[in-house]
Design goal:
It is a single chain. This protein is α+β, with helices and mostly antiparallel strands. It has 3 helices and 4 strands; from the N terminus they run ββααββα. It has helices at 18-23, 25-33, 80-85; strands at 7-10, 13-17, 37-42, 45-50. A 4-stranded mixed β-sheet has the order 1-2-3-4. The longest helix is centred in the first third of the chain and has 9 residues, at 25-33.
Length: 90
Amino acid sequence: MDQIWSDYNAGSMILKNVSEAKAELSALLEAVSKGEEVIIGKAGVPVARLVRYEGQAEARRPGALKGRIKMAADFDELPEDLAAAFGMKP
C-alpha cells in the first residue's frame, strides 16, 4: 500500500507516523483526553488507533450473577478418556 500521509489533522482525528508519535506522545495524549482520535501509521499504513479510555460502564458487584449460573454435579470430574490423555489415570 502506498504512503497515505505524513502529518494530517482531519477534524477530531490526528494522523501521525511512528517517529512523530514518539516525539509528540505527551501532546497526543492531551488531545486524546479531550476526545480526539489519533491514528498511528508505519510506512504510511495505519497500524494503531489511540482513543480516550472510557473505563467500565458500571462498577462490578460481587455476587451479581448469584443464582444465574449452574454447575453440573460432576463439574470437577474429567471423562476417563480425557483423564487418560492427560496422564491422570493409568
